[in-house]
Amino acid sequence: MTENVPASPLFSQKHLLGIEGMSRADIEALLDMAEAAAPLSRQVNKKKDTLRGRTQINLFFEASTRTQASFELAGKRLGADVMNMSVANSSVKKGETLIDTAATLNAMRPDIIIVRHHQSGAVDLLARKVDCSVVNAGDGSHEHPTQALLDALTIRRRKGRVEGLTVAICGDVLHSRVARSNMILLSTLGARVRVVAPSTLLPSGVDNLGVEVFRDFRKGLEGADIVMMLRLQLERMSGAFVPSLREYARFHGLDEEKLKLAKPDALVMHPGPINRGVEIDSAVADGPRSLINEQVEMGVAVRMAVLESLSRHLPNN
Amino acid sequence: MTHAPIALVNARLIDPAAGTDARGGVFLEDGVIRDVGAHVTPSQAGSRTTVVDCGGDVVCPGLIDMRVFVGEPGAEYRETLASASAAAAAGGVTTIVAMPDTNPPIDDPAVLDFLMRRARDTAKVRVLASAALTKGLRGQEIAEYGLLSEAGAVAFTDGFHSIRNSQVMRRAMIYARDFDALVMPYAEDSDLAGAGVMNEGEFASRLGLGGIPREAEAIALDRDMRLVAIARGRYHAALVSTSMSLDIIARAKAAGLGVTCGASINNLTLNENDIGHYRTFFKLAPPLRGEADRRAMVEALASGLLDVVVSDHNPQDVDNKRLPFGEAENGAIGVETLLAAGLRLTHSGDVALPRLLAAMTIRPAEILRLPQGRLAKGAPADVIRFDPDEPFVVEAARLRSRSKNTPFEDARLQGRVKLTLVAGEIVHAYS
């Protein structure tokens, strides 16, 4: 991205808290910016100075590898000073409330805070207590907007479009913020979205969320252009929601044989980290139709685009 | 399997599935019913065919007993598949559904596979398996309905354990629906039943025994109906025993829910007074109720509200029964006396014979989605012949079950099973 391309005026929010409420134009402008940012990461000199002098805090109340690293690299490549706050070593462990933590950090005058929290709505709450921009890096089972954006970008780059594609989102839809953000975003872009899961892992009223619902994995895969697998949390595997790992793998795990039910050119995605042999077989995860690593690459580009577009609204100006 | 063809002629053919009750015969060959009707006569049979003149006895589909506890694996001293199936054959029961309360319980496809193989090798009648609704029958974690269905489970139940946790029950129902699996729970609020050992009421109070209120069944059943309304799956109440429960089932059926119910032959033919002076062979679950409830159950059978009658066959040895009433195990054997005990209701004029037989043949077949249970061309040749009027006295020592805990000891019953055929093969003949 060159200096003469301004941050899109179409995306004019102070925070990025969710996909819900974003217009198709906002989303496409962000994807265009990310598309333009992608080549930077493949250069020797990966640095820009859009955020030079700015302070970005990554505040992760939940463990994360790829999202936290991705936001850190995106901030650094844009020239920001990035600080990672690990909750394990913080005052949160001493019983500090979320709002007190927010006030404390706010007093240090950061420009952007990236937040992940295990409670739905916690990032929204924090955003109302600070003066800087806040990006939701995942809140509970609610939203994970940058994941949905990077998924859409990956699809668009490989398929040339999102509109008209049939996307099957498969697995633990009930607990998945990735599924919620993707259901909204991909529908907004004109994709036909399906959710495919055992009934125990579907949210109540899912039939009214504007998606097609399949409880039979095989039927849900038929004719899909994109098969997006979700991670099954280990603690949900033994009896509460599904009886066992082996039964889940047998009926809802993606292997090469079941993938044949999708379109011949169907592509496979997974937000990671994957449970090999549970929701996805290694042969598929590592196979030629897997976009898993490309998703990670696009993650950095999308987060750079988000940070750049927010830079127009940062405080301390 | 190549047996000589058999023609049962000169019979009173009752086929509840077709609603027929008429003179005629059935012709069985290669394990299936080849022909049925008034035109099946000795002159029509070929030279290879064994012809049996039934002398006007009833010929009907073999009975399907949806609730039989067998001792395998783990309690072979009480009952084996061989002894249970011999008792079944003698009682005209050609298909039994084994309960998962075994040791280990049938909550794993490998255990179910073991049971099916043992049944294939040692049982005279068809044995189908139900599997656990929750792992270890503990009511905590849902079992592998998908893998267990593939292994042959026809229904899911925790046997005589009820599911206390409503969240577990809800998840069990919606997960079962994904596999179109039949959920067949025993409905009882175990907290309300508490330490009760018989029906709550005056009689229990006189005996000084703890009572199990009728509401314990109704509350659990009512909860389950609300969950069925969410889950929209297939639900069969394994055992109901009160008019209160029947009202709940009637409302659920009227609301279009996929609900059916069964009852033990004991709750249809016995009442709490039969306990007499602490007779533990009458200690059952659900408990024998008062006469008003028994009457309501009989009426529900006659009207069709009650879908299925089962033996609730539960062999217990003397060590478990020759105890103070409060300490004795629940349960009675019954698969061998199921039909004869049921015929009490036809002889008393309360229930028409075809209706009684429907609750033991076609209704279980429909609920379990089985091809047997009907006298139709091409259906499995599971057929019985019985004389509904022949009297006999039940002698526990002569019953084929390994355990002798029958509540009908010395009872005068009418109805002798003379011939039982499974897949066209004679597995029991009374002479």
List the keywords.
heterodimer, A: 317 residues, alpha/beta, 4-stranded parallel beta sheet, 11 helices, 9 strands, globular, disordered N terminus, B: 431 residues, TIM Barrel, 8-stranded mixed beta sheet, 30% helix
Description:
The complex is a heterodimer of chains A (317) and B (431). With 317 residues, chain A is an alpha/beta fold. Chain A is built from 11 helices and 9 strands. In chain A, the strands form 2 sheets. In chain A, strands 7-6-5-8-9 form a 5-stranded parallel beta sheet. The N terminus of chain A is likely disordered. The longest helix of chain B is centred in the middle third of the chain and has 18 residues. Chain B has one domain: Alpha-Beta Barrel (TIM Barrel). Chain B is globular, with a radius of gyration of 21 Å. Helix content of chain B is 30%, strand content 24%. In chain B, strands 1, 2, 3, 4, 5, 16, 17 and 18 form an 8-stranded mixed beta sheet that branches. With 431 residues, chain B is of the alpha/beta class. Classes of the chains: A alpha/beta (317), B alpha/beta (431). Chains A and B meet through α8 of A and α3 and α4 of B.
Q: Considering the protein shown, what is the CATH homologous superfamily of chain B?
A: Metal-dependent hydrolases
Largest sheet of chain A: 5 strands, parallel
Question: How confident is the prediction overall: mean pLDDT of chain A?
Answer: 91
Distance between the termini of chain B: 25 Å
Strands of chain A, total number: 9
Strand content of chain B: 15-25%
What oligomeric state do the depicted chains represent? heterodimer
Summed up, the helix count of chain B is: 14
As a percent range, the share of helical residues of chain A equals: 25-40%
Parts with pLDDT < 50 across at least 5 consecutive residues of chain B:
none
- Give the largest interface pair and sizes: A-B, 16 and 16 residues
Average pLDDT taken over every residue of chain B? 96
For this structure, the CATH topology of chain B is: TIM Barrel
CA-based gyration radius of chain A: 19 Å
